Hints:
- This protein is mainly beta.
- The chain has one domain (9-191): Protocatechuate 3,4-Dioxygenase, subunit A.
- It contains one helix and nine strands; from the N terminus they run αβββββββββ.
- The chain has one helix spanning 16-21, and strands at 71-80, 90-94, 110-114, 120-126, 137-143, 149-155, 175-178, 182-186, 189-191.
- The strands form two sheets. Strands 1, 4, 7, 8 and 9 form a five-stranded mixed β-sheet that branches. Strands 3-2-5-6 form a four-stranded antiparallel β-sheet, with no helix packed on it.
- Strand 5 and strand 6 (149-155) form a beta hairpin.
- The longest helix has 6 residues, at 16-21.
- The radius of gyration is 16 Å and the shape is globular.
- Mean pLDDT is 85; it is low at 1-31.
- The structure holds fe (ii) ion (FE2).
- Fe (ii) ion binds at residues 49, 51, 134, 137, 139.
Amino acid sequence: MIILSRRRILQVSPFLGAVIAGSAQTAQLLPTPACDDGDADPTAPNDEGPYFKPRSPERASLLDSATGGTKLVVSGMVVSAGCKPIANTVLDFWQADDAGQYDNTGFKLRGHQRTDANGAFRLETIVPGFYPGRTRHIHVKAMSPGGVVLTTQLYFPCESRNARDGLFRPDLVMNLAEGSGQQTGHFDFVLKTA
Ligand SMILES: [Fe+2]
């Protein structure tokens, strides 16, 4: 349960305990953006990369019967720098499959959704594979109703390749927990303005 107030978002993340439980896994994990004093640092932009395709289908689940790999559910919120939830923000996700391949002819593992009235989102996908030169990551564009666009990437904790990837940023690492047969990630986006 996320509570947006004058408290740090991190303090109420249901995934934090699982992350802290693995002490070695916390070394590269920084807090998600904080809302102390109602003033959060905006989520950092990160390279778009060469594989973005416009006009992805609107869907919260990128899974279909042919999707292989480990299931991953990512949830979180989109808030303003003043920590107000931003409803109806478009979140457009794209990523590699479990073999590290992007679908550049169709829209496999591509899709966009809109945050709900509470600014929340929930993405069903898989853990992306590696490809040369990059650590594990998911691309995303966030577009608020007010026209603010953030292009960034979400990263995974505990990846040895993180340290060797020049695009990697520790403040873009999801809080991640492993469940039975799937992983669960959490990330809250902070946009500069609504
Ligand atoms: Fe990529």
